[in-house]
Amino acid sequence: MLERIRQYFILGDSQLKLYLLAALTGLLAGSVIVAFRLFIDHSQTVVLSSNTPDDFMGLSWQWIVTLPIIGGLIIGLLFTGITAEQKSVGVVHVIERLSYHEGRLPWQNFLRQFLGAAIALISGHSVGREGPTVHLGAASGSFFGSILDLPNNGTRILVASGSAAAIAASFNTPIAGVIFAMEVIMMEYHIASFIPIILASVSGALISRLAFGNEPFLGVISTQMNSLWEMPYIIFLGIIIGLITVGFIHSLRFFTALWVDIPLWVKTSFAGLLVGLGGLIMPEVMGMSYSIIHITHLTELAIWSLLLLLILKLFLSTACIGLGIPGGLIGPTLVIGAVAGAILGHLGNSLAPELASSIGFYAIIGMTAMMGATLKAPLAALMALLELTANPSIILPGMLAIVFANIIVFERFKLDSIFLSLLRARGLDYRNDPVSQALRRISVANAMQRDFSVLPETISHDDAKAALLNNPLWIIIEQERLPISLMPAADLARALEENSPEAMLDLFSIPASRQNLIKASLHDSLQKALEILESHHAEALYISRVTAPGVERTYGVLTRQAIESHYQPPRH
Question: Which portions of the chain are predicted below pLDDT 50?
Answer without folding.
Answer: 569-572
